[in-house]
Design a protein that fits this description.
Blueprint: E1 2-5, E2 16-19, E3 29-39, H1 41-47, E4 63-71, E5 83-86, E6 89-90, H2 96-99, E7 111-112, E8 124-128, E9 132-134, H3 141-144, H4 147-161, E10 168-171, H5 177-188, E11 192-197, H6 203-208, E12 213-216, H7 223-229, E13 235-240, H8 244-253, E14 254-262, H9 275-281, E15 284-287, H10 293-304, E16 312-317, H11 321-329, E17 336-340
Helix pairs in contact: 4-5, 4-10, 7-8
């Protein structure tokens, strides 16, 4: 099959377009022809060599939508021709985590697309009934690829935050793919969303997407502005998409009893934390991984009902993935960049 491969870790220009072996589905798996694949900040970190489980040469990409072309004899819910979106990994379906509906944390299955499993920068991927969802005709494959990660990650994080109607939530990295959809979801849930962005040029788009207020913070210090907007009290929760660069200001943005939901870390490494602040204010720190299949099902329902629309900043041919990565690194786009395979270009 045709694929854009990562032969070594490095900058955006390390990718190579070449022919590689097509994945072979097991009896309980499907072969999916990829139509579109979103580019995530996780991809940029993976390309740079920050994930130890990535085996080189790798075919990256975990935001995938496409069409089933083969279904193994043990597959009963899908058939060739079905249009599907997938969550970011194939879980085992047998461990305690899978049994409790937390298959997004499973480490016993085939793996995460783009790391242990060939991903959406290639022409075909494997999928199973444990990670795939049948798409309604009203959702295009171009849009469907971002539902699990770009929208589902924020959906999962907001569920983890346990917020109530009228609560205030701060979203860092708000103009990125995960951030902007989290803003949209927060508005849909009746929350007061405060968007944090380093770019003044993206403020109007964030307001149009549902942000009650936008804080433009090129220096990534925004806690004083949050306190001003909340009459000195602070926010009920922060959805921390950026990680290390904004972590300190995010903690200081929280009210007593607030919750920090950590979704991303764009600058890998440790962060300083004064335990006294967490103790005296009883702040909860919660990790939040990617969407579950149940989350994806709910996101699809929201899109079908017209309650949220995918925010895609640009479409790029998969052969030009280096350009897509540069666009992401240079922050030239709001929302998601989506790679299109030949039949979608």
């Amino acid at each position: 099959m045709r694929a854009v491969t990562l032969p070594r870790f490095g900058g955006p220009d390390v990718f190579v377009c070449e022919e590689v072996a097509r994945p072979v589905p097991a009896a309980h798996q499907m072969l999916v022809k990829v139509a579109a694949c979103g580019v995530c900040g996780h991809d940029l970190l993976n390309r740079a060599g920050n994930f130890p489980h990535t085996r080189l040469p790798a075919v990256m990409g975990h935001e995938i939508a496409g069409t089933v072309v083969e279904a193994g004899p043990l597959v009963t819910r899908f058939k060739p021709g079905d249009r599907v979106a997938v969550i970011q990994r194939i879980p085992c379906g047998l461990c305690a985590l899978c049994g409790s509906g937390r298959e997004n944390l499973c480490s016993s299955g085939p793996g995460f697309y783009g790391e242990g499993l060939s991903g959406g920068y290639g022409e075909f991927v494997l999928a199973s009934e444990r990670n795939a969802l049948l798409l309604p005709d009203s959702i295009t494959l171009r849009a469907a690829c971002v539902l699990s990660c770009a929208i589902g990650t924020g959906f999962h994080a907001l569920r983890r935050a346990g917020l109530e109607l009228g609560d205030t939530v701060v979203v860092t990295g708000a103009s990125g793919g995960v951030g902007i959809h989290t803003i949209k979801l927060a508005r849909l849930l009746g929350l007061r969303a405060i968007a944090v962005s380093s770019s003044k040029a993206k403020a109007a788009h964030l307001q149009d997407s549902g942000a009650a207020e936008v804080i433009v913070a090129p220096d990534l210090s925004f806690h004083k502005a949050v306190r001003d907007l909340t009459r000195g009290e602070g926010a009920d929760a922060v959805i921390e998409v950026v990680g290390k660069p904004t972590f300190n200001s995010s903690v200081r943005s929280l009210k007593a009893g607030g919750r920090m939901v950590i979704v991303g870390n764009l600058d890998p490494g440790n962060v300083p934390l004064n335990p006294a602040m967490a103790i005296l204010k009883e702040i909860d720190f919660l990790g939040s991984a990617h969407a579950t299949l149940a989350d994806l099902r709910k996101v699809v329902d929201l899109v079908v009902r017209g309650e949220i629309a995918p925010d895609i900043g640009d479409f790029v041919p998969v052969q030009e993935v280096s350009r897509a990565h540069r666009m992401m690194e240079e922050r030239k786009v709001s929302g998601r960049v989506v790679l299109l395979h030949d039949d979608q270009q």
